[in-house]
Design a protein that fits this description.
Number of strands: 11
Distance between the termini: 13 Å
Order of helices and strands: EHHHEEHEEEEEEEE
CATH architecture: Sandwich
Shape: globular
CATH class: Mainly Beta
């Protein structure tokens, strides 16, 4: 969704159970669904635990993916709290993923192009981060803190560079359509 501001801070969330579930995932689990890495050049230096995914619009067909078994209970609790506190009820989650940007990795400058992004709120919850992550939106660097929830303007150009240890964000898309 295109926002007036590049990043909207939603506030602190209890992410401890979700972080524990994600950190317990095996190295093979991170590689099990590589659709994002194969489909989008900018995500080649990432790994994913994909929980929910839809690429259809305007009638999204949402599939449970391998990450569902790993983190659905903990992720649903975080999602439900964020939606209850910040968004109207009655929508649906069309994508949910834990995304790991490897140490030294980069997500190239891009804007999300699928038509669903114009109608969905893109929420990031950093689970593991470091001060050497540079998340740039509209040419401005933002530091997204662990345990905070943010809505990002993903229809704006954005890029991420990680000069520190691996960075992991939980990301989900919420739409009222």
């Amino acid at each position: 969704m295109l926002l007036e501001t590049p990043v909207r801070t939603l506030g602190q969330v209890d992410h401890s159970a979700l972080k524990s579930a994600v950190m317990a995932a095996t190295p093979q689990a991170w590689l099990e669904d590589d659709t994002r890495q194969k489909s989008f050049e900018q995500h080649k230096q990432t790994q994913s635990l994909v929980m929910l995914f839809s690429n259809t619009w305007p009638d999204p067909v949402v599939e449970q993916k391998p990450g569902w078994a790993i983190m659905s209970d903990a992720a649903t609790a975080v999602i439900d709290r964020i939606i209850a506190d910040h968004y109207p009820p009655g929508g649906r989650i069309i994508r949910a993923v834990a995304a790991k940007l490897m140490s030294g990795g980069r997500i190239a400058l891009h804007k999300d192009a699928h038509p669903s992004f114009a109608a969905s709120h893109r929420i990031h919850v950093p689970l593991v981060t470091n001060p050497d992550v540079d998340f740039v939106i509209r040419g401005v660097s933002h530091h997204l803190e662990e345990g905070m929830a943010y809505e990002v303007s993903n229809l704006d150009y954005h890029a991420v560079t990680n000069r520190g240890p691996d960075r992991i964000h939980f990301i989900f898309d919420y739409t009222l359509q």
